Amino acid sequence: MKKEYIVGICMVLILISLFVYQMITDKGVEIEELQELKEDEFIKVYISGEIKKPGVYSLNEDERLDSLIKKAGGFKENALKDKINLAKKLKDGEMIVIYSTEDKKEDNSYSGIDIFNYGSLDDIKSINGIGEVLAKNILNYRNTNGFFSSFDDLINVNGIGEGKLSTIKKSLGVN
Fold first, then answer.
1. How far is the C-alpha of 134 from the C-alpha of 158, rounded, in Å?
2. pLDDT tens for each residue of the chain, 175 residues long
């Protein structure tokens, strides 16, 4: 009788332990699912250049460039602000470079990729192989997506394929 009583208590304890284990395991799955959902709601964006606190920032997926700049402490004194679209919607993994006013040459000429990052419609049209429509496409792309980090980024502009990109590079003396 005493033996059966002890076996019964052990069985009850085992059942209770299994029940508690099951609850903990289920909660663990729920917590992991919630963490995955939270991570999906955020994007990470890297900002550098003429910004007070450059680095990688986690933002809500619907935030704009002005919000990132505020989180990064604002512009430095020499930031080239007039060429930045503060209403630009940010994308996960994006890199934003805030250029300096000193990046533009004194005589209003440009070197390398800078003509596409700072140039006016007329500046861009002056490049061999680029007309009015393509220059506007380049400006629209720049205003929507930010500065070009290399000539190869131009391939993303509507109207620029491999052949046109090659012509532009040759015109500017880029290999």
1. 8
2. 677 778 778 787 888 877 777 777 665 555 555 555 455 688 998 988 889 999 999 999 889 889 999 999 999 998 878 767 788 888 888 888 887 877 654 444 566 777 888 788 888 888 888 999 999 999 999 888 888 878 888 999 999 999 998 888 888 777 6
Which residues, other chains included, contact 28 with Cβ-Cβ below 8 Å and sequence gap of 6+?
none
Contact by Cβ (8 Å): 125, 132? yes
Write out the two tokens for 135: 């220059």
Rounded to whole angstroms, the Cα distance separating 95 from 44 reads 9
pTM over 0.85: no
d(CA 31, CA 138): 46
Six token digits for residue 77: 């004194």
166 shares a domain with 120: yes
Question: Both 111 and 98 in a single domain?
Answer: no
- Amino acid making up residue 53: K
| Domain match, 131 and 83 both | no
